[in-house]
Amino acid sequence: GELARGLIGSAIATSTILGVPLGHNSSYAEGSAFAPPRIREAINWHRSTNSITEEGKNLKDPRVITDVGDVPIQDIRDCGVKDERLMKFVSDSVKIVMDQVYI
């Protein structure tokens, strides 16, 4: 955000996490809806793991990876939004993330 821009200047993160906790169409289990927080947990941020990649990039550096949060899937569905419109919202969210500078 703006604070980071002021501190380190404008830069584009090489990777961005946008969670899409979607599992309502699963025929058996909705486990995929829990993936975004589990991915963040795995990347983030265990003290016992090394946050430096093989290429020497530090995953804790916001210029390398930025987390922009989750699309509020369940809140949108609770408002009665149909799946087709929900998928358009997700697609539009991805486009916005890809077009933005977050740092």
Automatic annotation (TrEMBL):
Record InterPro entries: Ureohydrolase, Ureohydrolase_dom_sf
Superkingdom of the source species: Eukaryota
Keyword Metal-binding appears in the UniProt entry: yes
Pfam families: Arginase
UniProt GO MF annotations: agmatinase activity; metal ion binding
Keywords: Hydrolase, Metal-binding
Example of a GO biological process term: putrescine biosynthetic process from arginine, via agmatine
Record's keyword annotation contains Hydrolase: yes
PANTHER family: ARGINASE/AGMATINASE, GUANIDINO ACID HYDROLASE, MITOCHONDRIAL
Protein name per the record: Arginase-like
